[in-house]
Write a structure and sequence with these properties.
Keywords: Membrane, Transmembrane, Transmembrane helix. The chain is mainly α. It has one domain. Helices cover 66% and strands 0% of the residues.
């Protein structure tokens, strides 16, 4: 009977470890994925200084877009009070 209790206690401790580490692992994987996406978007949306020089005032949009980065980061939505002037 004593061996049965020890086996049950081992199973219980293992279940507790799994219950702790599975959510931690899922959180870490999600965080790593989000960080990777953030870095990729940042890298793909930045225009090097050397590429800015050819852009001139008065160029058409089509001419300017040829040297722009492939990803455009949209501005964050503004609060209603800022857009309505309240």
């Amino acid at each position: 009977m004593d061996e049965h209790r020890r086996a049950g206690a081992r199973r219980h401790r293992r279940a507790q470890r799994v219950a702790l580490w599975v959510p931690v692992g899922v959180f870490a994987a999600t965080l790593a994925l989000l960080a990777t996406v953030f870095v990729a978007i940042t890298v793909l949306s930045v225009l090097p200084h050397a590429d800015v020089d050819p852009i001139r005032v008065g160029q058409t949009r089509a001419e300017s877009e040829r040297v722009l980065p492939p990803v455009e980061i949209m501005e964050a939505p503004r609060l209603a009070a800022h857009t309505t002037g309240c």
